[in-house]
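Technical note accompanying the year-one report. For the benefit of new consortium partners, we illustrate the data format agreed upon in the data management plan: each record pairs a sequence with a structure-token string. No post-processing was applied to the example shown here.
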Amino acid sequence: MPERIDKELEEFRRVMEVPSTFEDGFNWLSFLGALFVALLMVPGAIYMGLLAGVGIGPAAQWVTVILFIEVARRAHRNLSRPEIFVLFFMAGAAMGVPFTGLLWNQFFIHSEAASAAGIAQGLPRWFAPPLELKE
């Protein structure tokens, strides 16, 4: 019985070749990308989240990658796939912003809307520090 070959499976296997060598993607460029995300993108995302109630989402990852690809192109340098991979996922990890919930809680308890509705006074202390700290 002849061996049956699945054409779709073979096409899928040819999409990406398994690399024969390991390339390190973490270098000074990815470190600069992390600084860029930490100093510009994260504060912008926090501000946008507090102001509009909507986060930047995955756009920050792509903005970082595209910006660094363009800067590298202007410097006559190509980014390798591992460098792009590290930039993309480092930006995503930083944009996760695990402490934005704490900033939102503090913003909410001090907002005029929460005070006018009487919600701010009824929120527990563990949610956010109270408006007036008692000494």
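Partners are asked to follow this layout when depositing records. The radius of gyration is 23 Å.
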